[in-house]
From TrEMBL:
Pfam families xrefs: DUF2273
InterPro entries to which the protein is assigned, alphabetical: DUF2273
Stated name of the protein: Putative membrane protein
Keywords: Membrane, Transmembrane, Transmembrane helix
Length: 77
């Protein structure tokens, strides 16, 4: 086999087990955060990443930024 076939085979394996792979990567990154910054700061960083992911996900779905902010912080009427 050449290197290209090995690369395709690796991508096929990763796509088959993408949840496990992503879980392992996220676990590794969280462990690095905890080791470097401590548990409280790691939780804060994880929350900020989650909020950023949520806003980015909504933006990718072509939602207006004002609608995103209004969904997060609704008006009290």
């Amino acid at each position: 086999m050449n290197k290209f076939d090995d690369l395709i085979q690796t991508f096929n394996l990763l796509s088959k087990y993408k949840g496990r792979f992503l879980g392992a990567i996220i676990g590794f990154l969280v462990s690095l955060l905890i080791i470097n910054f401590g548990i409280i700061l790691a939780i804060f960083i994880s929350i900020c990443i989650g909020i950023g992911y949520y806003i980015g996900f909504r933006y990718d779905n072509k939602q207006d930024f004002k609608d995103i902010i209004n969904d997060i912080f609704p008006h009290n009427e």
